[in-house]
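Q: Could you fold this chain for me?
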Amino acid sequence: MDTFTPVIAAHAICALYVLLLGPVQILRRRRDRAHRLLGTSWVAAMVLVCATSFAIMPDGFSWLHGLSIWTLVCLVLAITAIRRGSVPVHRGFMVGSYLGTLAAFSFAALVPARLIPRLLQSDPLIAAATVLAVGAAVAVAVLLALRPAPAEAAAEAPARRS
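A: Sure. Below is the predicted structure, expressed as structure tokens.
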């Protein structure tokens, strides 16, 4: 792969979203509506990361594609676990999925022949702008998710007037 194709760009942007939102989800103490909303967006981005990885096969199937399959399995198990009320199992699979993504990113960023190091060397401004844009998207998603739901806001309004 010599350039960022639309598939590679989508893969990289979704992976960056997953990497930046992951710590918010893992470190926030409250498991509330915001956690569910952000978690849904995190899972959607993770599924896109995995799906797009199968369109990026310059040398055929690799261990990274195996990681994508395993991640998809883990996501299904994590969602099944939380629907059954098993928070520890859910947490384990989700944190494991995040750590797997972090490992894959480390590989992609540290191997000089891969696109990320080459982009950092040739166009650092594009790399920085992309990180800032995705970081801003994560910040907006977090702020929107943390806003009270309309029903909650209406219930709090009379209490504020008192």
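A (continued): The helical segments are 6-27, 33-53, 63-83, 87-110, 115-122, 124-146, 150-161.
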